[in-house]
Amino acid sequence: GAVVSQHPSWVICKSGTSVKIECRSLDFQATTMFWYRQFPKQSLMLMATSNEGSKATYEQGVEKDKFLINHASLTLSTLTVTSAHPEDSSFYICSARGGGVDTQYFGPGTRLTVL
Amino acid sequence: GQQVMQIPQYQHVQEGEDFTTYCNSSTTLSNIQWYKQRPGGHPVFLIQLVKSGEVKKQKRLTFQFGEAKKNSSLHITATQTTDVGTYFCAGPESSYKLIFGSGTRLLVRP
User: Fold this and answer.
1) What is the DSSP secondary structure assignment for residue B70, as one 8-state letter?
2) Cβ separation A46–B44 shorter than 8 A
3) Is pLDDT at A102 greater than 90 in this prediction?
4) Is B38 on the interface with A (CB under 8 A)?
5) Is A105 exposed, middle or buried (0-12, 13-18, 19+ CB in 10 A)?
6) Among positive and negative, which fits the CA dihedral A68, A55, A37, A99?
7) Which of A96, B50, B68, B72 has a beta carbon 3.0–4.6 Å from A30's, enabling a disulfide?
């Protein structure tokens, strides 16, 4: 149980375009979903927390107008990187928490490369 | 804000040797969680420790939570090549938010 999927697994885009990443909890209802960014050989940095049906809470230094988060249902959250630039290239990982447990279950991640 | 540090940053061992990574929090934690991330992969939950002084074992892995609930360790006995990856500890900053440690990257020479 506790499977989280992400789509796409990797994406290459041109600078200035927008990219949408989906995060789904497949076998449980995720009351809370988290979006992290991880640069090579670094730790996970929390970008934002989203609860179903409410606005996301962004961490300090994360531009909410650039990283749009929508948590439309208990099984789906999306992260849209708007007007992507090469410095946005990173590994984006979502996690989900729900089912009455504190543990976060991570998706497989999306590797974004902006040319 | 709360900080979670891990040492060492990196360790290269011969297969069969033991390995330990240490995690220290700037604040007392209600629990500590450990994750493993294989190269190119995503973090996978290993275990959660809640009680002061708690020790848990998973086969060759031994996890400890300090008496003051500010530090933790992960010890691997007789490492294998399948143990390769980065090990992260994580502690809750609030009821829902996890702060991840800097990670310890383990390489195992066959």
Assistant:
1) S
2) no
3) no
4) no
5) buried
6) negative
7) A96
